[in-house]
Amino acid sequence: MSTTETATTEAAPAGNLNAVGMSIALTVKDLSTSLDFYTNGLGFEVQEKHEFEGEVRYIQMSAGNAQLGIGQDDFAKGHDRAKGVGFRIWLNTSQDVYELAERAKTAGIELAEEAQEMPWGGHSFAVVDPDGFNLSIASP
To answer: Which residues partner with 138 through β-bridges?
Structure first.
């Protein structure tokens, strides 16, 4: 099995994890700013909104099979704590990454890396979200 295939129908060897999906949740400083970044800028779709005491505090989104949650930071660990250091989210797509990069730029997102061919093949571009989380969007 290649590293890009999913093992949803094969049983994992005894003692190994057999995950059937993965969802990432990020804590963000400003929920509405992050929502705009991911929906209008990158094309995610809102799946669920969760309220606490009458305010939306968490939003679950999807882009194809990728799941991403964003939750409003309560700042219990401070307002200026570093986020996203040493961490990158890779989103793989069969779409044209050059067109997706243009969409992001049209929405006002500054690209951290322009769409380009990668040394190992395929193409990708990179962005940094409003909280400093690094994302690369790639196609084979």
So the answer is: 92, 124
Report yes or no on whether pTM surpasses 0.85: no
Over the chain (140 residues), the average pLDDT of each successive run of 10 is 49 75 91 98 97 95 96 90 87 95 97 96 96 94
**In CATH terms, is domain 23-72+85-139 a member of 3.40.1260.10?**
no
Find, among 46, 66, 65, 64, the residue nearest to 56 by Cα. Answer: 46
- Report d(CA 48, CA 45) in Å as an integer: 9
136 to 20, 79, 107: CA distances (angstroms): 22, 26, 17
The pLDDT score that the predictor gives to residue 11 is: 66
Closest CA to 44 of 132, 103, 3, 113: 103
Enter the tokens of residue 4. Answer: 């890009």
What is residue 47's DSSP assignment? E
Q: What are the domain boundaries of the chain?
A: 23-72+85-139
For residue 88, give the 3-state DSSP assignment.
Answer: strand
